[in-house]
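Can anyone check this?
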Amino acid sequence: EEVTEEVTEEVTEEVTEEVTEEVIEEVTEEVTEEVIEEVTEEVTEEVTSVSMTTVRDITEDYTIVGPTDSLLCKEDEFICPERCISTSWRCDGDIDCLNGEDEENCGNSCKENQCRVSSEDPFLEMGQKLIAKNKETTLVVEKTGRFVLYCENKKVIWESGTGGASVVSGLIIQANGNMVLYDDDNEVLWESGSGSANTQSSYHTLVVEDDNTLVLFNSWGVSIWETDTAGLCDETKFT
C-alpha cells in the first residue's frame, strides 16, 4: 500500500506538472497572440491616422520641408524660406511660398483672362483684350475711351461710361488697389474706388471670370472690387 501510494503520488505530481505546464503554455500563447493583435491594431490605427493627417496637411496647406539652404535647391528651383519650388511657379499668379515671396517683384503681365500688376505702369493697353476661359466674356479698353465688358454676341453688360473721352495709355491699377483711367491732362476720367490706404498687398490681379464678372483680387486672393454682372451673358442669349 505504501509503495502504491508513493507511486500514485509521484505519477499524480508528474501528470499535474505536465498538464499545468501545457495549460500555462497554451494560455500564455493565446494571451500573447491577443495582446500582439491588439497592440498591432492600435499602432496601425495611430499610424494610419497620422498618415491621413499628413496627407491632408500637404494637400490643403503647404509642404513644409524645414528651413531651406540655397545649397539644397537645384539650379532650376526658386528658394522660399521654407522650401524649394520650381522656377516655373515664380510669378505665375499662385502663392507657393508661405509668405508669397515667389509672387513679389514680378512686374506687370497680362495673358488669357487676367492681368497681374505690381506697379503703377499701364497694364491693359488701348485695344488689348482679356477673354474669359469659357470665351463668353471679353474685356477691352476701346480706342473710343470706353473700358467695357461684353458677351460673345457683342452685347455690353458693363462699361466705365468714358466713351468719347481721350484716354491716355490704358488702364492703371494704383499701388493701393484703385483702378484708374486718365485723360491727356492726367485727370481721372474713371476710377473703381477700390483703393485702400491701409493695403499691404504686393500685387493685384484683374480677372474676367467664367460667370461674366470682372473681379479685382489682392495678393491674398480676396476680391476687393467686382462688376455686378454674374450670368448676364446667359440672359442676353435669349434676347
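Reply from J.R.: I decoded it. The chain is about 25% helix and 25% strand.
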